[in-house]
Amino acid sequence: MKMMRVPLAGALALGRALALAPARSSSLRAPARAFASRMPEVEDAGLKWSTGTGAPLECRAAVAFGVDDLRTTDVVVAAPKAGEVRLRVVANALCHTDIYTLEGSDPEGLFPSILGHEAGAIVESVGEGVTSVKVGDKVIPCYTPQCREADCIFCASPKTNLCPKIRGTQGRGVMPDGTTRFKTADGAPVAHFMGCSTFAEYTVVSEISCAKIDDSADLAKVCMLGCGVATGWGAAWKTANMEADASVAVFGCGAVGLAVIQAAKIRGARRIFAVDTNPDKFDIATEFGATDCVNPLELDGPVAAHLVGLTQWGVDYTFDCTGNTEVMRAALECAHRGWGVSVVIGVAAAGHEIATRPFQLVTGRTWKGTAFGGFKSRDEVPELVDRVLAGDLPIDAYITHNFDGVDNTHAAIDALHGGDCLRAVVSY
């Protein structure tokens, strides 16, 4: 079959501030799992390019070959199979989860793999049976799929967005048929990541992972709705379902934390605490809606006790956006006695567990977790995009750094490590 050559187009250290356990240690990193040694060769779908179903093509991608070993190279991207969509990635926003996996902290981390999961793309070709998107559509690939099948109790329930349809294969770095659509130029298979793999100029995803959005959307902006910003909004509006006039504490003022703050302000919260050890983040947190800024390093005692003291009985809704398990505990323990809700958003490193005294729960506090903010991806991401286009949800301020070309993925990662970066967007 003819091959086409396509033109080139962490957690915060609050634990120490709380006199608690240290941050992640390299000894707790998940062992790198070899992908190539146990995977079959990439298979082609045998479909014609002219029909919009594609042929294998070659493009540039940032491939994670091992822990902290990210290299930009040529990869071959197979045609989409039945129920699959091949996308031309237009813009990719870097998320700390990508870095977390690259650093070896993800228990499901596989190498080699193509990371990236927060992107805007255009449908390049579709596999057999795909009906919800067509060639040329703008989409946001979503790591939380939505199958919408009649027998899926998760899709049918308003209580969750955790459709398990492709969870088993997605966690193994392959497509639903058990194979990968990526290989290196010399033929070695490369794993998928979170069902997205957007650190590449082209990628293949399941149809049920594609949220079709308005054609007028700027993909370099709305790409952020594939993870971080949407996650923060949903954590406040759906998972916590906070009411107006509530008090809120947000631990960690990165992009996700700021999205929680923004959502709380929109919902009408009366008091919003921004908690971070980096005081340089407080100006932007205030712009997003924080009414009080707290630096645990400047306190004489634990931050939880400080917040309880400021509010008499605690904060109505608290959110951990750091991934530090001791911060998760502090967020719970400053929640309001009797009805306080604490939402875990940050992803902890492999081997870490959360703990608290049962008394904290017996006295009315609730500990909750959220993935993608509880949003049902294919139904609700398009609605979020519409609200952005209508001016109801400003997002421009999240983008602090812009880069061109997949070869600048390293530079974007370096920027993300800086304290002044919220979201770095790489346009392909």
From TrEMBL:
GO BP annotations of the record are: formaldehyde catabolic process
Its signal peptide is 1-19
**GO cellular component terms, semicolon-separated:** cytosol
Gene Ontology MF annotations: S-(hydroxymethyl)glutathione dehydrogenase [NAD(P)+] activity; zinc ion binding
Question: Which intervals hold domain Enoyl reductase (ER)?
Answer: 66-426
Per its UniProt record, the required cofactor names are:
Zn(2+)
State one Pfam family annotation: ADH_zinc_N
Per its UniProt record, what CDD domains does this chain match? Answer: alcohol_DH_class_III (cd08300)
Could you list this entry's UniProt keywords, alphabetically sorted.
Metal-binding, NAD, Oxidoreductase, Signal, Zinc
Instruction: Supply the name of the protein.
Output: Enoyl reductase (ER) domain-containing protein
- What organism does the record attribute this protein to? Aureococcus anophagefferens (Harmful bloom alga)
